[in-house]
Amino acid sequence: MISLSIALIKQSALVKSIRRSGVFAFSVTLLVSVSALLSPVHASQSTHPNLVVNQQDVLTMRAAIKQPGSFKQAFEAQKAQVDSLLTQPILVPVPVDAGGGYTHERHKKNYQQMYDAGMMYQLTQQQKYADYVRDMLLEYAKLYPSLPLHPKRKSRNEGKLFWQGLNEAVWLVYTIQAYDFIVSSLDDTQRKTIETGILLPVADFLSVQSPHTFNKVHNHGTWATAAVGMTGFVLDKPELVETALLDLEKSGKGGFLRQLDELFSPDGYYNEGPYYQRYALLPFVTFAKAIEQNQPERKIFEYRNNILLKAIYSTVELSYNRLFFPLNDAIKSKGIDTTELVIAVSIAYGLTANNDLVDIAKQQNRILLTGDGLKLAQAIDANKPSHYPFISREFLDGKNGDEGALIVMRQHTPTDQAIVFKATAQGLGHGHFDKLTWQFYDAGEEIVSDYGAARFLNIEAKAGGRYLPENKTWAKQTVAHNTLVVDETSHFKGDVKVGNKNHPIVDFYHHDDKLTLASAHIDTAYDDVNISRTMALVSVKVDDKDTPLVFDIVEVNSDNSHQYDLPLHYQGQLIDSNFARQAATEKLTPLGKQAGYQHLWLKANATPKKGLAKVTWLNDNGLFYTHSSIVDGNTDVLFTQLGANDPDFNLRNEHSFIQRTNSKQHRFVSVLEPHGEYNPSAEYTLNATSNLETLTYERQGDLSIVGFSVLSNQGSTTFVLAINHQTKNSLDNNKDNNTTQRFSYLGKTYSFDTRYQLIQISQ
User: Fold this and answer.
1) Closest to 448 measured CA to CA, from 313, 610, 615, 581
2) What integer pLDDT is reported at residue 763 of this predicted model?
3) Catalytic positions, please?
4) Most buried among 68, 130, 284, 353, using CB within 10 Å?
């Protein structure tokens, strides 16, 4: 406690004025003394709870649990679980295990159980629930002052209860809410013991003793500032709140507000990607909710043009069939039903009453016992039609929206076709070297895939639950993604610091009812190479049926000759190719020695003749997919399987094929085509071969001219797609800009003045 006291004592009244973009100017005058810091402030019973749940919420919820409905059902289910806990001994073990180990998981369970029991106390007013929380906190107050740093601490972000300070902050975010629920039931001695023995020491450890984390603009810093700030509200210590908002020196160079300023783009996209956006949402929205309750004049949810609400909505939208897009260091099984987003959606609904969120809440299938949770439960019970609008969107990256973008192209419904075109910034330490990569989804499944993170989260037998070594040697490397690799070297030579200083440039994004287009480029991934990529999700009519197609154009230019590799990682079973392959049937060798290549077994290779090279595979959704590429006769195709140089069997055995060529300039042009159906139960197969008959490409000035024909009942249907690469914004707004473009195709001349022209030539 000494370090906390010294850091917070002021010799005279402190007058601090906070004036930040989008925030109400707030002044606070505070006189802090040694006795005020060391002694609990005994708030009256009427002031608690005062964080995410307030007194009026409690009264409303107490009435709701007496009425039939989903809220009462959630209460009864939660009460049964908590009642079973009360029959079990309280366990507060000395920490010894890393993530996933017994003591780690025990302390995680403890904070959740204290929270749940505290809520039961508020709703039932039965003393046994408050006693359970009290007794556990008294045990922590005995243990914590004697704890050294965790024996398996992780780097500089160490903890005491946990192997890293991040988990310590999560513990306090939940525990301070539990204490808020039961503090009015305690006597003075109990309060003082708990506050000085565990709550303030943890807040001190997370802030004054861990400035490298507390002041950092990062999700670890977000958790720490939220934990300390919420503690300040409950214990009536405004100095802790101000420190949490502005950093330890109250300079504004760190702290919660700076996190809001820098970690989200103006569209609410989080720099580290949706997996970590989901995780960081909980401290953001819970602390913000506490600020809203205690300092409504700040209008925190209006800060930066409603940035927190945008962040909640964008997290929802960065998912497909309920799972988050696995960008950067992502665990692929995480989805919209994760606790953090359940809480965020509930808070957002409480603030906005947006009926679209009811659809998401139904999919989450979990009712929170909070005031906002009650509002959402009542909306679900009302059974009004609700459909969240999953649409094509460009999510700008960077705090000012000028560091590239994540572009999501969608067709119609949440489980129809979707493309993720990643032209974002690096994403700090959790970012991957994957500039201009893409993923494709269809019929509820991942088709063209991203590996995500190499990690078995909280499985101690696998590197203690940490990121595996293969996360660096494989998952982060460029060849692990669906983007261009030059000379078997990852983007920015695998240097995160260099990657954080560079990002792609989005040349244009366009969406309308017919198709979605985007194009971006980067000339800093390699020293002397410029890479551009244009993608389109198109649906054309063939025999009165919509036929979805994905167009992909990668152009690479350099003054020097290089080896260019373009991988495509797919989910499913290879069915066939329209060219001969030479398979390795007796011995496998790694494809390379570094930058991820050492983990790829070379299963087969081929050099298709000039023309159209096709590879077809079958996905678990029962659909066939054919990737068709224009090849020049000098391009090799390498078929690979993941798993080489993996003695601990840490990697999934996934498949890819790589187009390889050596030149100064090259253009990769391809189409991905879903088709057919396989039903093993009913024992039938339909349309297992590609319907794409021809594919041509020509560059005419600023225009890309893509011609293609698709098999139909009448023979074939021919189309031409002309893409205008001019970067004038007016094109994407469909304004009259006097920039008419002309092109010729099959002897005819066409003209248009928008971003693209899609024409059916014949049928």
Assistant:
1) 615
2) 66
3) 276, 430
4) 284
